[in-house]
């Protein structure tokens, strides 16, 4: 957006922090940047505001915008359907149009009086990577005669710290068979040197395990035989590419206990707890309305559980064929139900809210995106 001419008043990456203590420590700076952004809005008085995800800031920012009578288009809904449902009233009061990327969200919002539109998921319209398996192997030092398993531990350091060690233990179990190699995409939010150092320290305890760091998650998922993916956007990436996978995740015991008490799904999302009383958290399972990929969360996330869950997806089994078909169904559900891309539909919604200047004849001029 900056390359397209956006004037950045505040950098989102400078105010985005995870964890209670991290947020508290940076609160004076975060609040100062927020006040600077609000002051800029009051001075410039934009014709329309486009808010993207980031609910802790954007829902409060929407209040300031509505006070100034500035229409608000919200793109990528906060997960109010999972928890913090009380914030729904803020959306009802402050958001002019809610543009959502998951199919069940439109029904959820419309049933609660919010003007919402499902526009499709941007990832679902991307073409598959074009690099061949042979060229991919050459570029990253992989053996094309072996099967490759992708490991996606998350895009933040805290996630890597909590998830990657168990993924490496799983890789060690699987590598004893000698027929697999492992690829680990480096997220754009992650420092590759940090991951390399982490791997060097970790693999000293896991024998001669070799992990190939690669730059692009989509290409890794495209060429991997199967994957182990931390819950998050990467699960949607794997689904739209059609790569069979197992979902894993681990947080602190306190965070998990709170989440288990707070997360409740509405009628628009059919979801049943598993044998351990855990509701599904993987977006692909929520979209499908049933558990199509295994979820190994918290205490169940161990190498001895993940390895046997992944093995059927590595061979030509009925389990693998069924999952490939289920993921294709999820991709179809994520696609836009019109000929317009998600971004073009958002642009059209914005255009409809812009004031129309009168031409010389006194008529109102119009434009389309």
- Provide the CATH topology of the largest domain: Rossmann fold
Estimate what percentage of residues fall within beta strands.
5-15%
**DSSP strand count:** 10
Mind telling me the CATH superfamily name of the largest domain?
Glycogen Phosphorylase B
- Number of continuous helical runs: 15
Q: Can you describe this structure in just a few lines?
A:
The chain is of the alpha/beta class and about 375 residues long.
List its salient traits.
Rossmann fold; alpha/beta; globular; 369 residues; 10 strands; 12% strand; 4-stranded parallel beta sheet; 6-stranded parallel beta sheet; 2 domains
Describe the fold and architecture:
This protein has helices at 12-15, 20-44, 55-67, 88-94, 103-110, 133-140, 157-175, 192-203, 217-223, 233-241, 253-262, 283-288, 303-314, 318-334, 342-353, and strands spanning 49-52, 72-75, 97-100, 116-118, 147-152, 180-185, 211-214, 226-230, 245-249, 295-297. By secondary structure, it is α/β, with parallel strands linked by helices. The chain has two domains: 12-122 and 339-353, Glycogen Phosphorylase B (Rossmann fold); 133-334, Glycogen Phosphorylase B (Rossmann fold), CATH 3.40.50.2000. The strands form two sheets. A six-stranded parallel sheet has the order 7-6-5-8-9-10, sandwiched between helices. A four-stranded parallel sheet has the order 1-2-3-4, sandwiched between helices. Helix 7 (157-175) packs across helix 13 (303-314). The two termini are 17 Å apart. The relative contact order is 0.11.
Secondary-structure map with pairings?
Layout (H helix, E strand, L loop, with lengths): L11 H4 L4 H25 L4 E4 L2 H13 L4 E4 L12 H7 L2 E4 L2 H8 L5 E3 L14 H8 L6 E6 L4 H19 L4 E6 L6 H12 L7 E4 L2 H7 L2 E5 L2 H9 L3 E5 L3 H10 L20 H6 L6 E3 L5 H12 L3 H17 L7 H12 L16
Parallel strand pairs: 1-2, 2-3, 3-4, 5-6, 5-8, 6-7, 8-9, 9-10
Helix pairs in contact: 3-4, 7-13, 9-10
């Amino acid at each position: 957006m900056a390359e397209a001419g956006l004037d950045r008043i505040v950098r989102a990456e400078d105010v985005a922090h995870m964890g209670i203590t991290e947020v508290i420590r940076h609160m004076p700076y975060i609040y100062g940047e927020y006040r600077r952004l609000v002051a800029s809005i009051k001075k410039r008085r934009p014709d329309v505001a486009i808010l993207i995800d980031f609910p802790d800031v954007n829902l409060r920012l929407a209040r300031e915008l509505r006070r100034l009578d500035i229409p608000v288009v919200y793109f990528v809904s906060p997960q109010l359907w999972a928890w913090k449902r009380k914030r729904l009233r803020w959306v009802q009061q402050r958001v002019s149009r809610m543009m959502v990327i998951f199919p069940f969200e439109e029904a959820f919002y419309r049933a609660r009086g919010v003007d919402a539109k499902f526009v499709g998921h941007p990832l679902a319209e991307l073409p598959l990577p074009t690099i061949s398996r042979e060229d991919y192997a050459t570029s990253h030092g992989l053996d094309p005669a072996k099967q490759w398993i992708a490991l996606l531990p998350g895009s933040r350091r805290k996630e890597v710290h909590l998830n990657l060690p168990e993924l490496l233990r799983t890789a060690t179990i699987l590598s004893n068979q000698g027929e697999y190699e492992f690829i680990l995409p480096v997220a754009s939010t992650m420092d590759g040197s940090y991951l390399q150092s982490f791997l060097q320290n970790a693999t000293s305890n896991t024998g001669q395990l070799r992990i190939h760091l690669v730059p692009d998650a989509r290409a890794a998922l495209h060429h991997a035989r199967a994957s182990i993916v931390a819950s998050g956007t990467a699960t949607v990436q794997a689904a739209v590419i059609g790569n069979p996978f197992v979902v894993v995740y681990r947080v602190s015991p306190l965070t998990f206990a709170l989440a288990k008490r707070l997360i409740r799904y509405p009628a628009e999302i059919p979801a049943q707890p598993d044998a351990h009383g855990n509701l599904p958290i993987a977006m692909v399972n929520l979209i499908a309305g049933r558990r199509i990929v295994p979820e190994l969360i918290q205490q169940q996330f161990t190498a001895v559980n993940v390895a046997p869950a992944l093995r059927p997806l590595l061979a030509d089994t009925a389990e693998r064929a069924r999952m490939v078909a289920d993921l294709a169904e999820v991709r179809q559900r994520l696609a836009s139900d019109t000929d317009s891309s998600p971004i073009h539909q958002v642009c059209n919604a914005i255009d409809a809210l812009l004031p129309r200047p009168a031409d010389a004849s006194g008529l109102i001029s119009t434009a389309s995106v």
